[in-house]
Amino acid sequence: MRDLDISEVAARTGVAASTLRFYEEKGLIASIGRRGLKRLFDPSVLERLALVSLGRAAGFSLEEIAQMFAADGRAKIDRDLLAVKADELEQTIRRLIALRQGLRHAAICPARSHMECPSFRRLLRAAADGALPPAANGVAKKKAKKRPKRA
């Protein structure tokens, strides 16, 4: 397979060229030269970027991801670190499930006010105690679908 220029890598991976340059600056990927003004990458960069994407989706920092590569560029993933992250994800999933159930209950709760609902009050206490996970990947920023008001 031939070398890929930065625009080809961006098109194939969905990673913006500016992000690719940033990743290169951070040492996550490395260009192998230039074609005119465009950086060139070995095709193996696609797999490396897939690992970066997987790491980011799992909640690893860029610094942690950078440590998952040996000096020669091959993956060197610490299995203990993966286990710790999997445990963290499990805790986050449990909190998100509890949050989802609380919100679903609040949406149909017969109490006159949500503030009178014991389930909603527990949800508020959990939020006040910091037990709920922060919004991930801007999910909370997206506008919710408008539902018709109940009579």
What does this entry look like structurally?
The chain has a 3-stranded antiparallel β-sheet with strand order 1-3-2. It has helices at residues 6-13, 17-25, 45-57, 62-66, 79-108, 118-128, and strands at 4-5, 33-35, 38-41. It is elongated and about 70 Å long. Helix 5 packs antiparallel against helix 6. By secondary structure, the protein is mainly alpha-helical. The termini are far apart. The chain has 6 helices and 3 strands; from the N terminus they run βααββαααα.
Strand count, sense and barrel status of the largest sheet are: 3 strands, antiparallel
> Roughly what is the average pLDDT, rounded to an integer?
85
Helix and strand succession? EHHEEHHHH
As a percent range, the share of helical residues equals: 40-55%
CATH class call of the largest domain: Mainly Alpha
- CATH architectural group of the largest domain: Orthogonal Bundle
Determine the structural class based on helices, strands and strand pairing: mainly alpha
* Computed CA radius of gyration, to the nearest angstrom: 22 Å
Shape: elongated
| CATH fold group of the largest domain | Multidrug-efflux Transporter Regulator, Chain: A, Domain 2
Task: Provide the spatial order of strands within the biggest beta sheet.
Answer: 1-3-2
Low-confidence stretches: 136-151
Distance between the termini: 63 Å
- What is the total number of structural domains? 2
- Estimated share of beta-strand residues: 5-15%
Number of DSSP helices?
Answer: 6
How many DSSP E strands? 3
